[in-house]
Amino acid sequence: MRARIAGTGSSLPRLRVTNDDLGKIMDTSDEWIRSRTGIGARHIAVEETTASMSVAAAKQALEEAGIQAEELDLIIAATLTPDHILPPLSCEVQSALGASNAAAYDLCAACSGFVFALNTAQAYIQSGMYQNILLIGAETLSKLMDWTDRSTCVLFGDGAGAAVVTAAKEGLFAGVQGSDGTKGGVLSCGGRQVNHPFASRQPEHPYVRMNGQEVYKFAVRTVPKCIEQALAQADLQPEDISLFLLHQANQRIIEAVAKRLGQPMEKFPVCLAECGNISAASVPILLDKANRDGRLKRGGQVVLAGFGAGLTWGAVVLTW
Ligand code: ACO
User: What radius of gyration, in Å, describes the C-alpha atoms of the chain?
Assistant: First the structure.
C-alpha cells in the first residue's frame, strides 16, 4: 500500500504585510528583499493562532478527501511554533475537529517537517497500521523573529497547510530524508530559561538567528541530491515529474535546483512572493495552491522537497 494525497487545504492570516510596509518600520526596501529572495509580502498572525489556521486548513482537506473527522486514525502536526508547549498542536486540532478516533502528535523537523510527516505517514500506511492520516504543517514564525534584525525578520511569515493521506493500492511513493546535527548552529533559536531550585542559566538568544550564506550553500548542494535519490528509488527521471513543490525559502535556491535538475522553472510553482518562508507550512500551502489552481493531474508524478534547520532535508516522489 502507498500513501495517496486525497485532499488539501491552507489558511493564511488576514494581515498582509508588504516589503514596502516593512520599509516604513525598518531600514530595508522592496528592491533589497525582492531581488535577493523573491519575497514580496508575508501574512502575519494577529487574531489567528497556529491552531486556528491548522483547523481551517484541515477542514478544507477533509472536505476535499470526503472523509469525516471520526474516520481519521492519526494526526501529525509538523511545527516549530505551536501555540503552547502543552498540549501538542495536533491534540488541539484533534479536539477542534472532533477526530475522536485519531492518535495525535507533533513532529519538529523545521522546514523539512511536512516532508518528514509524509514519509512517516507512508511508513504507517505501508505497515497496515493506519489508513486515514491528517498531516498539518503550520507556523506562526512572527513570534520567533527579532523585529530589530532586518536580515531575518523580512524573510518569514505565518500560515498553515494540510493534507489528508489515505491508503491506495495504485501508484508509487518513494521518499528519502536526512539530518546533520553538526551544522545546527547555522540556523538556530534559543529555548526557555532554566530557573529552578537546583540550577539557573542565562536565557539563550530567544529569536531566530541565521547564517544566510551557509544555509544557501547547504540548500543548493543538498536539495538536488536528495531529489535525485528519491527519483532513483522510484526509477524515474526528472523529465517524468510534472511538478516540483519545493520549500519556499528563496527564489534563487529554487532556480538553482531547477538548473541542477535540468528542468524548466514552469515545473516549480512558487508562493514565496505572497507568503515568504513559512517553514513547515510552505510545502503544504504550495501543494494546496497547485491543487486548487488545477496544476495537479491525477496519475501524474509529483516531487515534494523540504530543507532547513537541524540541518534537515527530505524529498518525496508520489503519484498524485
Ligand atoms: N534590507 C536591507 N539590507 C539588508 C537587509 C534587509 N532586509 N538584510 C541584510 N541587509 C544588508 C546587510 O546588513 C549587509 O550590509 P553590509 O554589506 O553593509 O554589511 C548586506 O545587506 C548583505 O547582507 P548579507 O547577509 O550578506 O546578504 P546576502 O546577500 O547573503 O543575502 C539572504 C541574505 C537573502 C538571506 C541570503 O543569504 C540567502 O538567500 N540565504 C539563503 C538562506 C535562506 O533563504 N534562508 C531562509 C530561512 S532557512 C530555510 O528556510 C531553510
Answer: 19
Q: What does each C-alpha distance from 100 to 73, 75, 84, 167, 221 come to in angstroms?
A: 9, 11, 21, 20, 43
Comparing CA positions, the residue from 145, 81, 141 lying closest to residue 108 is: 81
What's the average model confidence in pLDDT over 31-54? Answer: 98
For residues 89 and 91, what is the distance between their CA atoms, to the nearest angstrom? 5
Asked if pLDDT for residue 201 goes beyond 90, the answer is no
Count of other CB atoms within 10 angstroms of residue 102: 23
Q: Which residues are catalytic?
A: 111, 247, 277
Distance 14 CA to ligand 1 centre (A): 27
| Atom nearest to 308 CA in ligand 1 | 51
**Which among 19, 28, 216 is the best mutation to test ligand 1's pocket, defined by most ligand atoms within 8 Å of the CB?**
216
Angle, helices 282-292 vs 113-127, to 10°: value is 80
Q: Are 118 and 175 in contact (CB under 8 A)?
A: yes
Is it the case that residue 202 has pLDDT exceeding 90? no
161-192-211 Cα angle (round to 5) = 65
Question: What single-letter amino acid sits at 118?
Answer: L
- In this prediction, residue 231 carries a pLDDT of 98
> What's the rounded Cα separation, in Å, for the pair 141 and 288?
20
The answer, yes or no, to whether residue 204 has pLDDT greater than 90, is no
- The mean pLDDT of 295-300, rounded to a whole number, is 94
Residues 102, 72 contacting (CB under 8 angstroms): yes
The pTM is what?
Answer: 0.96
Mean per-residue pLDDT, 94-116:
98
pLDDT at 67: 97
